[in-house]
Amino acid sequence: MPCVSTIVQQKYSNIINIKNVFTMKATIQEQEGRIVAILEGRLDTAASSQAQKDLEPLKNSNGIDIVLDCTDLEYVASSGLRIFLSLLQATKPKGCQVIIRGANDYLREVFSMTGFSKLFIIE
Known about the structure:
With about 120 residues, this protein is α/β, with parallel strands linked by helices. Helices cover about 40% and strands about 30% of the residues. It has a single domain (about 20-120), classed as Transcription Regulator spoIIAA, CATH 3.30.750. It has helices at about 5-10, 45-55, 80-90, 105-115, 115-120, and strands at about 25-30, 35-45, 65-75, 100, 120. The longest helix is centred in the last third of the chain and has 14 residues, at about 80-90. The radius of gyration is 14 Å and the shape is globular.
């Protein structure tokens, strides 16, 4: 049986920009009392190691909500989902909320199929 990402990718292949270069950029800012991580590109297996390092400091947020701005995130692999889950598990006990903002239809379906839509606040 194909993995969830493959099924969703096939369904939404018209909106996924498949490239030979797998990159993701993470920019972290403070906005309106929240920490916002702006994610751009593809959070695939090749990019997940660097993304993990880039987002690791967010785990030290004590009581400050975290927004993962996915407006320009084209794709997320299971390794990327693990990063999101790890962030939630590290920050929720500290009183933080992790909010997913700007997810496209592909990402929303991945979150729905994996149950992540029940774990995260989706804006």
